[in-house]
Every structure is written in C-alpha cells, then in structure tokens.
Amino acid sequence: MPIARTAAITVLALRVAYGAALVAAPGRVTRSWLGPAGGEPPAAVAVRGLGAREVALHGAAIVAAVRDRPLRGWLALSIGGDVSDIAATAAGRGGVPERAPLATAVVAGASAAISAVVAAAVDR
Question: If you ran DSSP here, which 8-state letter would residue 39 be given?
C-alpha cells in the first residue's frame, strides 16, 4: 500500500477514535472546547451526534481506502468539518471558554492542514 494511503488511513482512524470519544464521554472530551455545558444533557445530545457523524464519515473513508477507492472527496468532507468547527466556535465565542476559539482554530486548523497534505498526496 502506498505511503500516502497508509497516512490517510492513520489520519482517518484518529478521527474515528475522536468521534468514538465524543460519543462515550462528551463532557470530558469537550470540556476545554465547550466548558462544563458540554456535559449537560442537551449539549451532550449534540456532541454525541457530532461524534457519531465523525465515526460514520471517517469509517466510510477507511473502507474506501482499504478498497483502493478515491479518498480526496472524503478528506475534503473532513476538512469541511474542521472549518465548520472553527466557524461555529468563533460565532459562539461569548458562550465558550475564553481560550476555546483560538484553541479550536489551532487544533482544527492543524487537522485540516494535515488532511489537505494527505489529500494532495493520495489518489495520484
């Protein structure tokens, strides 16, 4: 298997793990992002939904990778999720911990950049 495809599977697997963590422990995983509200029942519903979508999207992309199918579209969707996390956190900056917008921009921005590098290398 080409190194770019192996890198893509690794990135995608980390995203599946993150999604599973959001489902299993929404309050703990989102504490620095959403503050204590992330563990409250109404927010936990949305966070678990987000986690399930992370698992589904990135799990399907892993299946595509293993079957030697194109991955750029899947990675583009992943980047879109990262960008939406940045935008949503910035828009809600009054209701999240003070450092959350910058931290989200750094973490989600790095994730998007990694996905973009992998997308540029895969499916050649």
Answer: G
Asked if 75 contacts 8 with a C-beta cutoff of 8 angstroms, the reply is yes
Which residue, 21, 5, 112, is CA-closest to 61?
Answer: 5
> Strands, E, within 8-124: which ranges?
none
Instruction: Measure the CA–CA gap between 115 and 124, rounded to whole angstroms.
Output: 15
pTM (predicted TM-score): 0.92
Closest CA to 78 of 96, 93, 65: 65
- DSSP string for 45-112: HHHHHHHHHHHHHHHHHHHHHHTT---HHHHHHHHHHHHHHHHHHHHTGGGS-TTHHHHHHHHHHHHH
SS3 99: coil
Cβ-based neighbour number of residue 114 at 10 Å: 18
pLDDT digits (tens, 9 = 90+) for 76-102: 999 999 999 999 999 999 999 999 999
pLDDT tens column, 10-46: 999 999 999 999 999 999 999 999 999 999 999 999 9
